[in-house]
# Entry
Amino acid sequence: MDAFDHLSVLVSIILGLGITQLLSGFGTWLEQRGSFRAYAPAIAWAAFLLLLHVQTWWSMYGMRDDERWNFLQFTLVLLQPILLYLAAVIVLPGPNAPQNDPRANFHLQRRWFFGLLMALLVVSVMKDLVLSGQLPEPLNLAFHAILFAISPAGYLTERDALQRALAYAGLVFVPAYIGLLF
# Structure
């Protein structure tokens, strides 16, 4: 077992926990669809996160040839799935959520959600910088910058129309990002 194989186990476990959290949220939505009032931004952001979890796992394979790892590098690599997991925990109400209503839960958690999203973007750029010694390629960096730039709007407003627009933009944004870069 080489270093990447060893380190990727923990990354995969955390990504798997995040995917499980999101799928459980979608399962609850389906199971309780009669009483679970759907809130489009929360559901769209959950789908966005599911795509990001899978894309993160996919992109980690690109590190398979890295033979020399240090703790800072691994910490930054690990921090990305940790932040994704935390966002997955709060985007849809779980059994222990303070608000069972998806809209109320989303607005209660929205600042944390967008804060985690901004932190995730910063960590993603820092990870590339620490692993390769350079910033991500310009198109990749542009995607990060655009998503980072729109996040404060979601952080600051409760307006449903803006939250819906941001969530749909994010949901379109991730497949475009994946299609163009991977």
